[in-house]
Design goal:
By secondary structure, this protein is of the alpha+beta class. The chain is built from 13 helices and 21 strands. The protein is globular. It starts with a strand and ends in an 18-residue tail after the last helix. Bound molecules: flavin-adenine dinucleotide. The site of flavin-adenine dinucleotide has 36 residues, from helix 1, strand 8 and helix 9.
Amino acid sequence: MEYDALIIGAGPSGTAAAAILAEYGHRVLVLEREKFPRYHIGESLIPFTYGPLERLGLIPKMKQSHFVKKFSVVFMQPDATSSQPFYFFTRYDRETVAQSWQVVRSEFDQMMVDHARERGAEVKEETSVTELIREDGKVVGVRAADKAGNVTEYRARITLDCTGKEAFTAVRNGWRMRDPYLNKVAVWTYFKGSKRQEGIDEGTTTVAFIPDKGWFWHIPQHDDMVSVGVVAEGKYLSRDGVRDPKEMFHREVGNNLWIKDRLSEGSSTGNYYITSEYSFHSKHCASPGLLLVGDAMAFLDPVFSSGIMLALKSGVLAGEEIHRGIVEGDLSPEHFAGYGAAIRQGLENMRKLVYAFYHPTFSFKDVIKRYPEAAGEITDCLSGDVNKDFSKLWDRIREFAPIPDELPYGLPLAA
Ligand SMILES: Cc1cc2nc3c(=O)[nH]c(=O)nc-3n(C[C@H](O)[C@H](O)[C@H](O)COP(=O)(O)OP(=O)(O)OC[C@H]3O[C@@H](n4cnc5c(N)ncnc54)[C@H](O)[C@@H]3O)c2cc1C
């Protein structure tokens, strides 16, 4: 059977695109290597995840879920003094956009897969895509192996690469470009029974600094769990020859008094995770028969929790643009120029804020002290309201830290 769309990967980007396309009545097949529910990092949602979740019809499920509600982000100095929390409801409606969630990805992603299936998409788990099939320079499908190793060919009018940071097609096409500056390592674990805030601050994401522009994330989850991880340059985390993630993690805990205090109760689940070199950009967003979505198109940095928002947003937009292309009889790469530009605009705005954040002498406090009115725009960007003109904010931030030039990536590659 020939499908309208083949989707590689059943993470948030792939399942969002699948649900939209299936809802329009298109024949969609999602191929996923893992058996769900599966573990994944990336647990803090930001307010502008609301739009895509609403478009998908998932807000009622999110509201009924036991995911911890998140209303703000706060920045904590090593001596445990903090910024004012950036409460999203100072800028957006408290009952809708301004209230976000801290999720457990095995549960959130299972909900997304179930939803795509309910909408009519076919999802094959434990099926690894091994190869793209090309005819006359156009991607016309994929070869995939099931867990017994049987290889099957699947064909479709368009193939979506939603493989996350593995970036299946960007790697094979030589499009995977490293970010000139972002190159961090993350080490993390989960604590049960550690100290928690209460009330509206229970679900706050805390970004807690350590020396040399490293930072901890502290993401409270349900069942009394907390996701806590440290991000820094690899050479800093592995100084003095330390290679064991557990040792790296616990050595840094003492470098932020707030984190030390939080983790003085409870205990780690014992699993420690490490990842590096996750920042990259694909040179192109599309080529004949192929579209890149979510992390497979680019991933910046975990600091402002923008990953799932961008994955869902690009998944929904990809679904809408493919539907329009099918209706208009145009699935050429050029058809996706607007898609690529919109996603890149969001990424570049976030990227400017991420670069400022990592600048050795930058602090949001200093910017807001000089320009109190900048607090609103910073909250907007932290909320993920990234498809708008922030030039005034960048002019102000430029007084404290260099603002990077935009990267010339994301255009479709024409036939
Ligand atoms: C340390 C760290 C912390 C993060 N924290 C946050 C956070 O707090 N908030 C946030 O929003 N984001 C965070 N992120 C980012 C977030 O994890 C991603 O942006 C998000 O998961 C992207 O979704 P996706 O659908 O594009 O890819 P993924 O969620 O990675 O899904 C890709 C899927 O493709 C499948 N796949 C891969 N290759 C193949 C293949 N060949 N065949 C079949 N299937 C395949 C994989 O099994 C996977 O299920 C973090 C990332 C890192 C590295």
